[in-house]
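If your schedule permits, I should be very grateful for your opinion on a structural question. Please examine both parts with care and let me know of anything in them that strikes you as inconsistent. The record follows directly beneath this note:
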Amino acid sequence: MQSNKMYAFICLLIFLSMKNGFTQVLNQSLVDPTRNREILIDYVNKEGLQTGEFESHYMDEYSNYSADNDAINKLKESLAEYDILIVLASWCIDSKEQVPRFLRILDLAAYPEEKLLMLAVDFQKKARDVETDFLDIARVPTFILYKEGIEKGRIVETPEKSLELDLLEIIE
């Protein structure tokens, strides 16, 4: 029980720091020594995902994803009650496919952008300036939903049904 409280507290701190004007520089990159490849690292935003090798995937997947309108309408009702953390990797094909689709769903559902936090990790699923061990990330992307600082569910790597239907299962 104590570890659950600590986990919720840390998650809450992350979201509060971003909402309160945390001055973390966004969209930084580095050459990952594991594969000698430039990657995004630490906090990123949509603009960062529209650059570099992620750009063409982002534009294609975002523009061409056909979301379930009934699910989107249901998401509009209560998704904004949740904070969302996306842990992604700019080198990962699943991230290149699923993250733009997920962001399109959020846009269609009129999800408030200030409640979204995105964190890019390296090949070891680590960030450079952000502690990630407590998140227990095994595969990317991982979409984590929080309500009042408590994790309510996650979608790991690829959805079981679809991103919007999996989201609905978490919030219903």
